[in-house]
Design a protein that fits this description.
The complex is a heterodimer of chains A (315) and B (312). By secondary structure, chain A is mostly helical. Chain A is built from 14 helices and no strands. Chain A has helices at 5-11, 16-22, 26-55, 75-81, 84-115, 122-134, 137-147, 154-163, 179-204, 208-216, 221-249, 253-258, 270-279, 284-314. Chain B has a domain at 104-267: Orthogonal Bundle (MetI-like fold), CATH 1.10.3720. In chain B, the strands form two sheets. Chain B has a two-stranded antiparallel sheet with strand order 1-2. A two-stranded antiparallel ribbon of chain B has the order 3-4. Helix content of chain B is 68%, strand content 5%. The chains are: A mainly alpha (315), B mainly alpha (312). Chains A and B meet through helix 1, helix 2, helix 3, helix 5 and helix 6 of A and helix 1, helix 6, helix 7, helix 8 and helix 9 of B.
Chain lengths: 315, 312
């Protein structure tokens, strides 16, 4: 080891530049290092957030900058919470969230459990399974519309092949009943590997010795699974649910490309609805209030969830 | 041969392996379908039943990179014989290439904005992560949580004021604006990840360097940076992938000069309506780099996608 850091460091003595700034205390250096990051985040995240909150109390419209801006108090909030369409959107989002998370946890955990059996080549196959989640959701969403084409789409062809129906007889993204499932299937295809990876880390963190002790006590495999595997992997599973929950609550790119929120409003998730209000109807004040409500919801739910997660971890 | 009660039996391994491989193959089908469609002729791409064996053509790629117009016989006669192989492909369809398409520009934008924001993000992120890891920063935990919480906001929610702010600053639809924006979005990931990587480097190295007369700055870039190189590289790839894939901000804040590829690819339209081989070709060129990165990253994948919450 000729190039160990200690040796290479020992060879050289500090130059003139260093002496000039030697006077800086650690505290000053720390601030010099942290300040640009904090500044940029304040400028691009916090400042806009405060601005959004301010706008949410006005009737401002971006496309009519010359109109007088009036303070309307809480009227935007009242209108949003009293609007049945918003509740439909929330319902669509909840349906999407519940099903994607359920499917992804079930499939993801099963895959992780199987991969953890350490068959030959499991590393390679894990990497292959991970591909979908690294890709651009908008590009993937767009391509899934091709797979879902009624006559020519591969998805319809495969379903028809196994089901015996006519592949032109159903349209995943054109049908009011099927469209919510179209986005769930695409999202599950894309994000199951994410849950799988976290579960795999959870399963690998369980020490072998616990299973060995259980074997000595003659606990059945079934019992070992429910009393060792599941409880020990639970914090990881919950973490996966948290990440997927936040991400899918914000879901925009994949779904907007896949169904555009249609047919009707069946797949209009909150982010898509928000985008329409803000950038198509240009109701800036109204959509700002909408954004604040969404943010408070995510933040509130996530905080409660993190508390629960910490409790599980402590056990 | 060692024996362990926890080692799965050979049969279990075979069974588990079989199921996982089956899943992997099913999950790969849509991806392979994208790649294959890029090499199909328009007729093959919409054939029923879907064709698996077909004669590959570069028509999709030609259509992706060029603008064409439907040509009359007169125009064809006037244009003379095709000069290049891509001219020839276009002529066979009765079209004439009128110029390059905007895909090249959009792709270049993706490269500029992706690499620009990644570089900036790594500079800022490494410095901040080092400070959080080694110094006593006041309100450290609060600041770290603040940095993380910026990731919880739906992009659309902050897009309105960012749109207004960028418009006032003249940053709308500029490379600089997008670079700053993606840097800010990626900072949370890079600070958290890099802090984890730097935490793992023993303090003793730096202490030895400081005793040898190095300043803090020198110790930072001559001792810590080389040690953290792997961590920095994988964090950079994660930031790059994010900026590469991002769609919501790109579609809202850019329209012409600084538009990246993701909002562009879905809108590729051919002479006869939706040109799926061209879309697939565009998607393939765009997705393949990320797949290569994924293979490079496989050791740090988990850490990256969970913000360092799970270390393997």
């Amino acid at each position: 080891m000729t190039s160990s850091p200690i040796q290479s460091v020992a060879k050289k003595t500090p130059d003139g530049f260093a002496r000039k700034i030697r006077g800086l205390s650690d505290r000053t250096i720390a601030w010099i290092f942290v300040a640009p990051t904090i500044f940029l985040l304040l400028a691009v995240n916090i400042f806009p957030l405060i601005w959004t909150i301010r706008l949410s109390f006005t009737n401002f419209r971006v496309n009519r900058p010359n109109n007088d801006v009036e303070w309307v108090g809480l009227r935007n909030y009242e209108r949003i919470l009293g609007d049945p369409d918003i509740w439909n959107t929330m319902q669509a989002t909840a349906h999407f969230l519940i099903w994607t998370i359920t499917l992804q946890v079930l499939i993801g955990f099963t895959l992780a459990y199987l991969i953890n059996k350490k068959f030959r080549g499991n590393d390679m196959w894990t990497t292959i399974i991970v591909f979908p989640m690294m890709l651009s959701p908008a590009v993937v969403g767009n391509f899934w519309t091709f797979l879902y084409q009624p006559q020519i789409g591969l998805f319809n062809y495969v379903i028809a092949f196994f089901n015996g129906v006519d592949p032109a007889s159903f349209s995943m993204i054109g049908d009011v009943n099927l469209a919510p499932w179209a986005i769930i299937i695409a999202d599950t295809w894309m994000w199951t590997p994410f849950v799988m990876l976290i579960c795999l880390a959870g399963l690998r963190s369980i020490p072998d010795s616990i299973y060995e002790a259980a074997e000595c006590d003659r606990a059945s495999k079934w019992r070992q699974f429910w009393t060792i595997t599941i409880p020990m992997a639970l914090p990881f599973l919950m973490l996966a649910v948290l990440f997927r929950g936040i991400e899918n609550f914000k879901m925009f790119d994949l779904v907007v490309q896949l169904t555009g929120g249609g047919p009707g409003n069946t797949t209009t998730l909150t982010s898509i609805d928000l985008k329409r209000e803000a950038f198509e109807r240009w109701r800036t004040g109204y959509s700002s209030a909408y954004a604040v409500i969404l943010f408070v919801t995510v933040f509130g739910l996530a905080s409660i969830y993190v508390k629960a997660l910490n409790k599980v971890k402590e056990r | 041969m060692s024996f362990s009660v926890t080692e799965p039996t050979k049969g279990t391994k075979w069974f588990a392996g079989f199921l996982v491989v089956a899943y992997a193959i099913i999950t790969l089908v849509p991806l392979l379908w994208i790649v294959a469609t890029g090499f199909k002729s328009p007729a093959d791409s919409i054939a029923y039943p879907p064709v698996v064996v077909f004669e590959p053509t570069l028509e999709g790629y030609v259509n992706l990179f060029t603008d064409r117009t439907r040509a009359t016989d007169d125009m064809l006669a006037e244009a003379g014989p095709p000069e290049t192989w891509y001219d020839e492909i276009a002529r066979e369809r009765g079209t004439i290439i009128t110029g390059p398409s905007r895909y090249g520009e959009r792709f270049l934008n993706s490269v500029i904005i992706g690499f620009g924001s990644t570089a900036l993000c790594m500079i800022l992120g490494t410095a901040a992560a080092y400070a959080f890891s080694r110094f006593r920063v006041p309100l450290k935990d609060d600041l770290l949580f603040f940095i993380l919480s910026t990731r919880m906001m739906p992009p659309i929610a902050v897009a309105i004021p960012i749109f207004l702010m960028f418009r006032n600053l003249g940053l709308n639809d500029t490379h600089l604006g997008m670079i700053l924006l993606y840097t800010a979005v990626n900072l949370s990931l890079s600070v958290w990840l890099l802090k984890g990587f730097i935490d793992e480097i023993p303090m003793e190295y730096e202490e030895a360097a400081l005793i040898d007369g190095y300043t803090r700055f020198q110790a930072f870039y001559k001792v810590v940076l080389p040690q953290a190189a792997t961590g920095i590289a994988s964090t950079a790839i994660f930031c790059l992938i994010f900026a590469w894939n991002e769609y919501a901000f790109a579609v809202l804040l850019t329209s012409g000069t600084a538009q990246t590829a993701p909002p562009f690819i879905p809108n590729i339209i051919g002479v006869n309506g939706k040109d799926w081989p061209a879309v697939a070709a565009g998607a393939t060129i765009f997705l393949v780099p990320v797949m290569v990165f994924t293979v490079l990253l496989r050791k740090h994948l988990l850490r990256g996608i969970t913000f360092g919450a799970v270390r393997k």
